[in-house]
Fold this sequence. Notes:
- This protein has helices at residues 2-19, 21-33, 38-58, 65-87, 95-109.
- It is mainly alpha-helical.
- The mean pLDDT is 85.
Amino acid sequence: DQSERMTRAVGALRTGVKRHRGLVNVFFAALARAPHDDELREALARSYADSRQAVAALLGLGDDGAAIDAASLVLATFDGLLIQSLVDEGRGPDAAAVWRGAARLSELTG
């Protein structure tokens, strides 16, 4: 079921952030440098393209354009939660909070 897969994905992100805090910091340093380094920017773009495909597959969204768009939104959410966890360590990724927020947002299109 998709909610279970999303819960596992958020749980894996939360565990990964705690376990690999140094890599998270390096990732954000790379993002800051990317606009000034074509090779780095291209590598990050390839990584995000691969991640969109992987997230779409993990969540069983398919492989069409809408699936990739949905995966991009999931990645953007995770990136935003990651940023928030760096500046507010008590506000890490939380599956229940993600689902509550998604449910509220779905009211806009419902």
